[in-house]
Amino acid sequence: MRICFILNPTSGTNRTQDVPALLTRYATAAGADFEIQLTQRAGHATELAREAAVVGCRVVVAVGGDGTVNEVARGLLGTEAALGIVPRGSGNGLARHLRLPLDLPGAVRRVCQPTFQRMDAGRINGHWFFCTAGLGFDAHVSKLFAQAGTRGLSTYVKVALREYRRYRPTPVQMELENQVLVDTHCYVLAFANAAQYGNNAYIAPQANIQDGLLDVCLIDALPMLRAVRVGVGLALGTLATSSSAAYHTSRRIRVHAAQPLGFHVDGDYVTDATDFEVELTPLALEVAV
Ligand SMILES: Nc1ncnc2c1ncn2[C@@H]1O[C@H](COP(=O)(O)OP(=O)(O)OP(=O)(O)O)[C@@H](O)[C@H]1O
């Protein structure tokens, strides 16, 4: 079984480690037949992943954060190769959802002796996501976070607190697969394939990655008291049982916003739009767990 590690050298906050040397050490110790590729730019991991799948690698491993996982996974759709994850990001939403080891030696050992399962994949306006996508405040924060110059959880929290004072909800119409039309406001509208954003922030604690459905979480307004409740709910995994958010499940969702809203896929801001088509492809990807 050939394994290809695709390493994003810019991911993570600890850049002092010689990651290729460590990958080599742990994969050799696990008796793996492997190669290591380094990304040179954004988007490169998708090309490298597809090439690795074409030459017959059985597992193609994203070594990075959820952005790298997204790029590698996109490259593997429709191929015979499975996605592996060696988490190196700050959030690691998909790795945490799949209960993969978060430490480097443990994660490398796991991808060298994996079991395989299939998982669903979502698309929003044609952009694939594997963990979560969303509109509104979280996408707005992702956009500013990307421009912040520094990364990590503390930068994210700083940006979120600053923007919380300025951000206002947008009127939206949402149509679910079974024709239910919801006329509401969007502060946050999240489409969850996996249960969490990353960092164990559970936006949709009941989300199942194999059920053929997206969990849709709507927060229509976020006054201070509710913001505190949402924060606690995210951390404890109790948001779905609080009255702070409304939940639906659907395979297909359409949203029309009264003014342009930003959206993100797997935590990376994409662009602003007024119309959104969100769709789930059941069991689209094989994953090494
Ligand atoms: N060699 C590279 N140079 C610059 N950017 C890159 C390179 N390789 C990948 N990228 C981009 O870096 C982005 C961020 O990577 P990733 O999400 O893996 O790490 P992170 O931001 O540290 O993790 P997290 O999202 O968990 O905070 C990816 O979306 C990818 O497009």
TrEMBL record:
<dbReference type="InterPro" id="IPR016064">
    <property type="entry name" value="NAD/diacylglycerol_kinase_sf"/>
</dbReference>
<protein>
    <submittedName>
        <fullName>YegS/Rv2252/BmrU family lipid kinase</fullName>
    </submittedName>
</protein>
<dbReference type="Pfam" id="PF19279">
    <property type="entry name" value="YegS_C"/>
</dbReference>
<keyword id="KW-0547">Nucleotide-binding</keyword>
<keyword id="KW-0067">ATP-binding</keyword>
<keyword id="KW-0444">Lipid biosynthesis</keyword>
<dbReference type="InterPro" id="IPR001206">
    <property type="entry name" value="Diacylglycerol_kinase_cat_dom"/>
</dbReference>
<keyword id="KW-0808">Transferase</keyword>
<dbReference type="InterPro" id="IPR017438">
    <property type="entry name" value="ATP-NAD_kinase_N"/>
</dbReference>
<dbReference type="InterPro" id="IPR005218">
    <property type="entry name" value="Diacylglycerol/lipid_kinase"/>
</dbReference>
<dbReference type="GO" id="GO:0016301">
    <property type="term" value="F:kinase activity"/>
</dbReference>
<keyword id="KW-0594">Phospholipid biosynthesis</keyword>
<keyword id="KW-0479">Metal-binding</keyword>
<keyword id="KW-1208">Phospholipid metabolism</keyword>
<dbReference type="Pfam" id="PF00781">
    <property type="entry name" value="DAGK_cat"/>
</dbReference>
<feature type="domain" description="DAGKc">
    <location>
        <begin position="1"/>
        <end position="127"/>
    </location>
</feature>
<keyword id="KW-0418">Kinase</keyword>
<dbReference type="InterPro" id="IPR050187">
    <property type="entry name" value="Lipid_Phosphate_FormReg"/>
</dbReference>
<keyword id="KW-0443">Lipid metabolism</keyword>
<keyword id="KW-0460">Magnesium</keyword>
<dbReference type="InterPro" id="IPR045540">
    <property type="entry name" value="YegS/DAGK_C"/>
</dbReference>
